[in-house]
Amino acid sequence: MRTVAVVGGGAIGMAVAWRAAEAGRRVTLFDPATGSGASWVAGGMLAPLSEGWPGEDRVLAFGAASLARWPGFAARLAEVTGLEVVVADETLTVALDGADAADLRTVAEWVGERGHDMRLLDRAGVRALEPALARTVRAGLLAPAEPAVDNRRLLEALKAACAAAGVEIRAERVTALADLPHDRVVLAAGAASARLWPDLPVRPVKGEILRLRHRPGAAPAPRRVIRARVHGRPVYLVPRGDGIVVGATQYEAGFDTAVTVAGVRDLIADAEAVLPGIGEYELAEAAAGSRPGSPDNLPLIGPLSERVIAATGHGRNGMLTTPLTADAVLALLDGETLPEARDALPQRLSATPAASSPSIAGGVR
What we know:
Layout: E1 3-7, H1 11-22, E2 26-30, H2 57-81, E3 86-88, E4 91-95, H3 98-113, E5 119-122, H4 123-129, E6 139-143, E7 148-149, H5 151-165, E8 168-170, E9 184-187, H6 193-196, E10 203-213, E11 225-230, E12 233-240, E13 243-247, H7 261-274, E14 282-293, E15 300-303, E16 308-312, H8 322-333
Parallel strand pairs: 1-2, 1-9, 2-8, 4-11, 9-16
Antiparallel strand pairs: 3-7, 4-6, 5-6, 10-13, 10-14, 11-12, 12-13, 15-16
């Protein structure tokens, strides 16, 4: 039985470990705090279509391919663990002014031409779906195929699935990939991946989110994911069983994960512009994490050497791209490349060598 080490215990790392163990490999997952990091601080949106924009064909295709895998992935998780992770079935993007309404038409046309169901709504159509939204909403774009998941329930389910499949989870920090004795190594350490493989073009992108808890008498949470742009800033509201997750700021701030007053202020103000009744909710949590960004908004999934495989750089779409990443890594472990994941091969970026010696990662913390 071939052995596999997975370095990184977020959603990506645990999904890879689970699927590899189910496929018959002996898997060890290394992470000092499994289920933390960017995966813990996430909204859980699965929205590649709503985020589509002309010219970003590869990003759309990759995201849509992973979205198509989510129903089977979620069903298998539920079968193994008894945990349902989906919390919303649709995504509604709303416009508060004419310019944003024009952008919605652009997205609807471009994404629709590529075979995806996108429905433009007028003011009345938006209010019919989500009557609690602000009366200033002018138009909407409904993506019926874009659900959302509870990221923390997903992490709980993946950890349980790993245990059921026999994955050994070790609460240890890996400082040198070359020290691991396993036949293959999967580098899924998120924003910290470049610390273990120098020159890997993955960087931390700070994001802040709020978790709001519903209080008696407050307006009900939306049934769908609500996305908007307020004063040029993107904002989203994702329903949870006890309230709403509001996100997310985006800063180039290194590994700084302090929550700022300005970030909280902007998120609350922007969310209230979309859902006025949100002011009656309880501010239950403010948190920040470091998303693993890449230069072209596509992850890096592919061989770094004969032994090491990258599965990192997923940016703000880690939850969305978890199923496709797991399938792609399993294919790579079998010596194959999944066609839908070819655009994510690390070698597309000139700074990433086609086959470097794993020893170059030695000693990096």
